[in-house]
Every structure is written in C-alpha cells, then in structure tokens.
Write a structure and sequence with these properties.
This protein has about 120 residues and is α+β, with helices and mostly antiparallel strands. The chain has three helices and five strands. The chain is globular.
Length: about 120
C-alpha cells in the first residue's frame, strides 16, 4: 500500500508494468525532476516469506519497491515493513538519471512492445 506522498507523486505511472530496472530509473527520474534527494538500491527483502533481491529507492523515510532484480512487469509499490529489508545486503547503485523526455520515451517504447 502506497503512502499518500508516494502515491501523489507517482500517480501518472502507477498503471505501468515496467521491468524492475526501468521502474528504478523511473522513480529516480521523477524524484530528481522534483529536486528530491533519493538513492537507488539493491537489497535482499523478504516478501511473503520468500527472500528475493530487489531494486528499491530510498526517499526520505520511504523505501519504494521497484521489483525483483530479474523480473519484468512490475508495479511500483512501497515497503511497509522496513524489517523485511536485510540492512547488511543494501548496495547503493549509481544509475544514469533520465530526463523527463527520456522517461516518456522509455514508457512509450514499453507500451508499444507490450501490445505488439
């Protein structure tokens, strides 16, 4: 369940089903466009009693879940239980920050290939 602050920022993108890495790029781009400091992460997280490696974005006190590192077709979500993240596994990632124009192109490209 998304908090109100996260849901309001990402409302235009919540219906997308991008790969986890594309979600990561999207979240970082949107927050960077708003001059919000955030960090792209890779970490072990326990979801439904299963340990997985996922992409996350840390923004203020929120951890935004972008999906398992090897998955496609993910929705943006928020980690409600911070205890589910293994703090020793957190790795900060350096990813290129897309412009909003590049982000729109990425989303259009994804929508095109989803329907072909």
């Amino acid at each position: 369940m998304l908090s109100e602050s996260v849901a309001s920022i990402f409302a235009p993108y919540l219906s997308l089903n991008l790969s986890a890495f594309d979600n990561l790029k999207l979240v970082v781009a949107v927050l960077s466009e708003k001059a919000e400091e955030c960090h792209a992460l890779e970490a072990e997280i326990c979801i439904d009693n299963q340990l997985q490696i996922a992409y996350l974005v840390r923004w203020k006190k929120h951890f935004i879940y972008c999906g398992r590192t090897n998955s496609y077709g993910n929705a943006i979500d928020e980690v409600a239980d911070l205890e589910s993240i293994n703090p020793e596994s957190i790795r900060v990632l350096q990813i290129p920050v897309l412009s909003m124009q590049q982000l729109e192109f990425m989303c259009m490209e994804n929508a095109h290939f989803d329907h072909c």
